[in-house]
Design goal:
alpha+beta, 3 domains, five-stranded mixed sheet, 40% helix, Type IV toxin-antitoxin system AbiEi family antitoxin, AbiEi_2
Length: 337
């Protein structure tokens, strides 16, 4: 559960007001303690009512859809996504995934046994300004958070050591570590720093990574005639590390990759392309991104588990969401105790 801000409440009320045009009333309850959900919203119409568990998400994009879908799926069948605006393509994908939603523009998908509403294509009439993101969730701050979430014991290391593992300037670490307690993610307990609310922090990192950091990392996209070679190829010889769907296939064995995701340098991507029968393509099946972390991972041939998990969710694909869900427990087990 994220902390419900006044801006979130304003957005829920704006989206709820749009339902009045469809003769549906909405009553918000932000006081009742909830597990995971932001609030409860009771909808009423002629002949029935339904109580939903609300999750507020702004600026929904294809790359953030997977993380949002997984979170809504875990809330259960009474989950409701409330957003500022859901575009027609995203509305279609949400409906296909069985995710009910409303937005402040008047778009909606509600599928209750006694109620069916499907509206798409409405444009926002008024822009609701979200709170500005903190530095911790901007590109350089996300690198620091990635290091801390991947290597939890790093939180008690000197800032210079954290900066080295995160690949950022020393001052960036100081700024992030100052903000995390204000956001409720860090505290000093018994003379040691400790990350708090790791599940909430992990989810916020994944969404911000997909929106802010990942686009900056993309080096090249190729189209290969087939990608079956990923199982036998030694990517280390090119200075590359395997991630995404292919890495998840090695870990979970429950997914058949449709794309191959690799991390390395621009020089490594050129060497790799020269040795493989591939051509540049904007929506190809092989992508190479810049490696952005400085700590060792185990095994060294795969990207860190958090990054595999995040890259699965950026696809927004149902089979990748399922594979990510398989990995989630192991990620959170790192913070147990």
């Amino acid at each position: 559960m994220d902390t419900l801000t006044s801006s979130d409440i304003e957005l829920i009320k704006a989206a709820s007001a749009q339902l009045a045009r469809l003769n549906v009333t909405a009553k918000l309850d932000t006081c009742e303690p909830l597990s995971r959900a932001d609030a409860r919203l009771r909808l009423g119409w002629s002949g029935g009512t339904a109580l939903y568990r609300v999750e507020v998400k702004r600026s929904l994009r294809p790359s953030t859809l997977g993380a949002v879908a997984l979170q809504l799926k875990e809330l259960g069948p009474d989950a409701l996504l409330v957003s500022d605006h859901v575009s027609p393509p995203l509305a279609e994908r949400l409906r296909d995934l069985g995710i009910q939603f409303i937005d402040s523009a008047g778009n909606a998908f509600l599928a209750h046994p006694a109620l069916l509403i499907w509206v798409k294509g409405e444009r926002p009439q008024e822009h609701l300004n979200p709170p500005a993101p903190s530095r911790a969730f901007k590109a350089s701050g996300l690198r620091v958070l990635f290091a801390l979430l991947s290597v939890p014991e790093l939180v008690n290391q000197p800032y210079r050591a954290i900066a080295d593992k995160a690949g950022v300037a020393h001052g960036t670490v100081g700024s992030v570590m100052t903000e995390l307690p204000k956001l409720g993610f860090l505290a000093e307990i018994g003379g040691k720093r400790r990350l708090l609310q790791p599940e909430r922090l992990l989810r916020q990192w994944i969404e911000a990574y997909a929106r802010t950091l990942r686009p900056k990392l993309l080096l090249r996209i190729f189209q290969a005639p087939t990608i079956s070679w990923w199982r036998e190829l030694d990517f280390a010889q090119y200075g590359l590390t395997l991630g995404g769907e292919a890495a998840a296939a090695r870990i979970t064995g429950i997914i058949e990759p449709q794309t191959v995701t690799l991390y390395g340098t621009k020089a490594a991507s050129l060497l790799f392309m020269a040795k493989q029968p591939m051509r540049a393509a904007p929506d190809g099946n092989v992508e190479i991104l810049s490696k952005f972390w400085g700590f060792d991972q185990d095994p060294p041939t795969l990207t860190p588990p958090l990054l595999i998990y995040a890259d699965l969710l950026t696809t927004g694909d149902a089979r990748c969401i399922e594979a990510a869900q398989e990995m989630e427990g192991r990620l959170l087990d790192r913070f147990a105790g």
